[in-house]
Amino acid sequence: MERFRELISKPYFAVTFLFIAMVAFYVICYIARSLFGIFDVQETGATEILTYLFYGFGGGVIFCCAKDFIEDKSTKSSFLAIVFIYIIMIFREMGAQGWLTTHDTVVTKIRFFTSPLNPLYEKIIAGAIMLFIVAVFLWVFVKHSKAFWQGLLKGNAISLTTITLFIWTILTQIIDRFPAEYLKHVGTDLAEPIRFAMKIFEECGEALIPILIVIAFLQFHYLYRKNN
Fold first, then answer.
1. Number of structural domains in the chain
2. Chain-centre distance for alpha carbon 144
3. Residues of the domain holding 153
4. Where are the alpha helices (DSSP H) in 72-189?
């Protein structure tokens, strides 16, 4: 157990883990493609199930680490805000962004608020929820930005894992939207092998987001235990 604590507390553990996990996912997906003719990673439902399992596992880890945050008054409010954001991420994965509209697909796009087809009350409710989520996120960011950047410059494991989480989340979203944007602007689809490779990255990459959160929480947990 002590060896695991030392390993996960390494500054570049998260990046190393991502690399190994993604290589493993690619190997598994290409073997499945070769043996079983699976050309759409998403259609099997395996990555979706895996994502929910990882979010469930992450929730358990956060619960186990909660005492470290709640005992310290300086981190209690931040912990509750991060838990709120984590729950929002689960709802997003479940497609909650489409629950508040009866005519559009999601409420996270500008077209939802500009379209006359969407009722005013839906726009008000969705807008209020979106503003609250953004406010919570910004509050956490502003409160911890100084410590985050200082930690990043010093090679702090938690800061490096956090920046890895942000970059990885943005990257998976870019990869997710790229094929559709390419078709929209170029007029032709990407080659099938490229689409398959990008789908693996997007689906499996999103599944690993809660694991990155778990790593950050465990790093804080071990650091807190070490200093107290």
1. 1
2. 19
3. 2-227
4. 73-93, 110-114, 120-153, 157-186
Output the six-digit token pair for 86.
């984590």
Main-chain phi, psi angles of 101, to 5 degrees: -130, 145
Calpha distance 197→192 (Å, rounded): 9
- The answer to whether the CB of 128 falls within 8 A of the CB of 136 is no
Name the pTM for this structure: 0.87
**Nearby residues of 72 by Cβ (< 8 Å), 6 or more positions away:** 224
Q: How confident is the prediction along the chain (228 residues), in pLDDT tens digits per residue?
A: 677 888 888 889 999 999 999 999 999 888 888 887 766 666 557 788 889 999 999 999 999 888 878 877 777 888 899 999 999 999 888 888 777 777 766 777 777 788 888 888 888 888 899 899 999 999 998 988 888 899 899 989 999 999 999 999 999 999 988 988 888 888 888 888 898 899 889 989 999 999 999 999 888 888 766 665
Distance, CA of 127 to CA of 118 (rounded, Å): 13
- With 0-12 CB in 10 A as exposed, 13-18 as middle and 19+ as buried, what is 89? middle
